[in-house]
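Sample A.
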Amino acid sequence: MNYELSRKQMVDQQIIRRGVSDPGVLAAMQKVPRHLFVQEALQYRAYDDNPLPIGEAQTISQPYIVALMSQNLNIKGGEKVLEIGTGSGYQAAVLAEMGAKVFTIERVEKLYHNSRKLLEELKYHDIAVKLGDGTIGWAEHAPYDRIIVTAGAPEVPKAYWDQLAEGGRIAIPVGDVHVQSLVLVDKVEGQQVKSEVCGCVFVPLIGKYGWQTNGQ
């Protein structure tokens, strides 16, 4: 399978045609080998227009959603980004290719080990991976210029707001365990300025300030 051609078709047909135009996003998604971030048996579907299972009841997001969230972070290069929900590491790799310094947290131990190993093998040295409860953030490296959450939350955890730099932005799916809205929260003179991008469906954000493990 010609993965490079498949990536180009993914970018052209799934991303550009839907209005994503940020050159950094397009270049990153053309470069990152998405097929390495999915299960080997599903690599032939890696560039399809849909999310895919990565094990442990988790998924790698649809390419368009990765592109849309990345564009809405407005990365110019050099930003410190906190990612909640490493998964297979694909979103973190895209952000790193865009020039961000990424700190990413994964709560599922197997996914943590797998993603950390893969990102190291691919020489993404600007990505720090941590095992833990993502709903409390990563205070040690705060403040962050951007925070991206790749799981649906009932609300914006206070820890994210506290760890966000002035002028920073949070991109987070907010709603119930079944369907959410992708919300942007900007910190403007210490105040929250919220805007809604679109409807979306993510796995639940599990943790102290998210949903409980039973989804209730």
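Sample B, a different protein:
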Amino acid sequence: MNLRFTQYIAPPDGGDPFQRLLNLFLQLIQYTGGDVNEALQWMNQLDKEYGLTKDEYGMGDFIEDLKQKGYLEENPANGNFSVTDKTGQVIRRRSLEEIFGKLKKSKPGNHKTVLTGAGDELTTESRPYAFGDAMDHINVTTSLRNAQINHGVDEFRLTEDDLEIQERELKTHTSTVLMIDISHSMILYGEDRISPAKKVAMALSELITTKFPKDTLDIVVFGDDAWRIEMKDIPYLQVGPYHTNTYSGLELAMEILRRRKSSNKQIFMITDGKPTCLKEGKRYYKNSFGLDRKIVNKTLTKAAQCRRLNIPITTFMIADDPYLQQFVRQFTKINNGKAFYSSPDNVGTFLFEDFVKNRRKHVQ
């Protein structure tokens, strides 16, 4: 008998039956829009067909563990289950690891820079005044001392050569609005685009809130209209019977950023790339056939407005239709932003177009 020995590779879940079932549950809960009862019904059906559990650990044990470990809450009045914040956090963290797992670690809360410049936080360094410096940055005490040293006390005078500027730290914290398309086209023709869209949204939101905790993050969804949601709602988003009002989404995002005091502002937009709706008063103007010139032009106008306000837009396009990509390229070029393209079945690989630096490369 010939024996061949190889290195033992443990399963990712360590063989733990709870972890195996948890992986499935976390996927199902996203498809059911956060409906725990429906997700558990699906799990019982799958268990019946495929034998997910063993005699020593049944589905009842799994449900009890979900409650004990803080994934589920039970309403004592009616016995219904609901997901906890921990469940959403675990889903977002897994999405981040899957999509951005290769990002290099850096100190949390910092956007590193070697530059000094306009900001609110004073440093201990100073320098001579230069033409164009703001008057409120002048260090009055040091400037008066220089005048006394240079001209004497008896004949006091203050000249430009006496002035010193107090250096300030360049503040690099950023205000971000994350826009998510929930129009019907995100599941049209049997192609699931909303699931990878949510995965990218969860990864981005987890990245921003954990890696850059001093930044602000607001989340906007858009269909016929646009409205704000909480980060905890992202895993359970569902597509509605909506058209795609990209204009309304950008308008709301710009209004949110207008109220933010940060000097650095940006928009992340996750979409399949095709605007099909405008709201004119109480009336909706809609056209799902091709790219409507009226809708496209107004949307591009918003992109140009964002550029004038120094608000770059990074578009994550979850579709591979050439004519839709053509619109996104035009939109990105007008805004001077960035775009990532991905087919729905491979959200981790993007074609990155950077119109700022005018280069193209693949990001794996």
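Observation for Sample B: Residues 122-168 form one domain.
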